[in-house]
Amino acid sequence: MDKVFSDKINILKALAILVVVSGHLEFSLIPMFPPYSFQVILFFFIAGMVFKPKYSFFEFIKKRTKSLMVPYFLYAVFYLMLTIALTPLIGKFWGMPVTLKNEFLMPFLTGHQLDLISPLWFVPQLFITLIVYKVFSFIRCSEYIKTAIFLTFTLFAIQLGQLRENLYVLLLLRTMFSLLFVHLGYLYRLHFEKSIKNDDVKQGQFNLFSSKIFFFVITLQSLLWLTNKDFTPADGIGLSFILVWGEFDNWIVPIITSLTGIWTSLFLIEIFYEKVKDWGFLQKIGQNTYHIMANHLIVFNIITYSFLALKGISFDVKNGADIYWFYYPLKTTYFYFAAGIFATTYMGEFLKKTKAKIQNLKKSNKKISFGL
Q1: CB 206, CB 157: distance < 8 Å
Q2: CA–CA distance from 254 to each of 13, 27, 142, 181, 251 (Å)?
Q3: pTM of structure
Q4: Per-residue model confidence as pLDDT tens digits over 117-131
């Protein structure tokens, strides 16, 4: 993979996880895009950007299982044990009852079997979406036809939201909705990234980041913002949608705001790449998105219980709320955000270094055993 493209992907991943974490704190880093308006979809788009059709089907499943599902279940086991250990201390079990169904099937249906790793619901869903996309990669037809098929799937998925109480329908609609954005990410890398990789777009060639496109996207998003029901909950269409639960307020707005959000994210990377490409901590954030997604809720809750203990407030106050509840948001929101990102990034760095040491130790032991 080209180094510039690889670096841009990493910074884009950093931006994606920053907007996801900020969304869990009920604020947005990007103006005119409220939490849940495109943030998770951006990760599907990124997955499409790095999709490699060269692998055979079973080789692809093997690689995605290793990179996505093995870490997922390792985290699931760790947080299950931690949740059980914390229950007597905080007086509440953060999750569903421990059963085989909840621990092995629910990750694919809702991903909310344990509260502390609920943000990781995205991982099993991405795994399934990529497998389905891989199947479609074997179909020989034009890219336009595939795009039309995936767009039809997305529109149909929004209609299926009416049946989301059925968890198997919920899994189906999430998969159908997300396929389009994986495909668009793949097409972006195939067609647009090459043309803007090193220099300006040649005269007469379509420029995805031209001033006209910029003003079109800003105008479109500002028109959507006018009807954002966050200001008048009884009216408006709402720009946010909850993909994990299949909740859509409108049949077309989730698609539009996903596209404008993705475009804005790509535009920001193109504009600021030269200025931020050497920011070491930003690179670390992009390299640890999995660990940030997995661990930011436990960091938030450690902060919350620390505040409660310092203020002499009973932990029961927290137990009456959900896992995302945090202390005095008016003053503490940005502290949670900064501390959460910093702590989870270096938790990821620590885990990667530990894994590397274990692998090196295994290699050394093998060499010794062969020497004997």
Answers
A1: no
A2: 21, 19, 26, 12, 7
A3: 0.93
A4: 999 999 999 999 999
